Amino acid sequence: MKRRPLAQRPTRERGSALLMAMLIVALVSTLAASGYWRQWQAWAAERAERQRDEARWVLVGALDWARLILREDARASQIDHLGEPWSVPLQEARLSDFLTLDRRGGGNTGGQGTGLPSGEDPLRIAFLSGTVTDLQGRVNLRNLLASQADGAAQDVTLSPADVAIAQRLFQLLRLPEAELALLLNRLPMAWAAAQASTSRAASDSGGRDAGSGTGNTTLGAVNPLAPLLPQRFEQLGVLGLSSATLEALAPHATWLPERTALNVNTASLIALQASMPRLESPQAQRLIALRQQRPYTSLAELRAALQAAGAPDLLATAQSHVVSSRYFAVAGQLRLDEQVFEERTLVVRNGITVSTVWRVSGRGHARVPTVE
């Protein structure tokens, strides 16, 4: 009987042990990589949450700053024009530039007092920019709806004068008139549905408060096929306007919560032409040239300028034109590391009180920042 050499047994055992060790190392490496990945995900989520909170508070501070500027502007002047401080855009600048650096006094600024080296100061990698825009310098498409004294949903009508303004605006911009027709058709439906829904909700609430179990059958029914009434300009797409049309209209038109007159001191050339029938482009250019030399302080000055430009002075009325504004759009942008945080806010100014109507926030990757 032939026996196997004893020298081969240790070699095979060593090979099995080496293979087992490699498997264990691979398993440990996989578990370590998985644990590191989970830890990195948790760190990234916490970092993103912290950046979002920081950006929100910085943009809230920027909004308060803009509101302060608008309030002080109301104290200083009764008219609004493009030569005032609020109209100057804030170009992108380091956030630390807005803070008072008093290193000799040992203040808590920059990297001092924060426990961070100068190179890791978060204020040194944060950049802020923003603008304030007068929205009453644009044609308010909300004016298309004629105001009703009783507010009844079934009595919704269109304002003929404002329909003519919208038609001239579309003609000047060479936009599809079919989209305007669709807007004029859907807008009363959306307004009627919104009014009926509001009235029904108010009636139901009043009935519950009074303990009444009977329903109000006099309220108009809500049309389930009616489009939603927009709250912002970009939402006009639900009423039939395409994205290209909205982009072309944006510098000259807007949507505000109530009827407003056009500020002739901030309106664009096309908005001025659209708001005044039979106003030619050279005459509108003359009005803009005159206001650049000296803003209009009253409608009487505007009428005098119309006469000097060869246009009828009756084109400007107190119902359609003003020299001051109440509604402003505040746009802020914060670039922090590789992220860009944006916020748009509509504010209304009543006297020296500046209130927020709505706020919209956004977020994206860092690129060449621009704020409209």
Write structural notes for this entry.
This protein is of the alpha/beta class and 372 residues long. Among the domains are: 39-69; 83-132, no CATH class; 137-203 and 224-322, no CATH class. The protein is 41% helix and 15% strand. It contains 7 helices and 9 strands. The protein has helices spanning 8-76, 160-173, 177-210, 243-249, 269-275, 281-293, 299-308, and strands at 90-94, 126-134, 139-140, 253-254, 262-263, 321-322, 327-336, 339-350, 353-365. A 5-stranded antiparallel sheet has the order 1-2-7-8-9, with helices on one face. A two-stranded parallel sheet has the order 3-4. Strands 5-6 form a two-stranded parallel sheet. α2 (160-173) packs antiparallel against α5 and α5 (269-275) crosses α6 (281-293). The longest helix is centred in the N-terminal third of the chain and has 69 residues, at 8-76. The relative contact order is 0.13. Mean pLDDT is 81; it is low at 101-120, 149-153, 212-218 and 368-372. Pfam families: T2SSK. This is General secretion pathway protein GspK. InterPro entries: GspK, GspK_central_sf, Pilin-like, T2SSK_SAM-like_2nd. Residues 262-318 form the T2SS protein K second SAM-like domain.
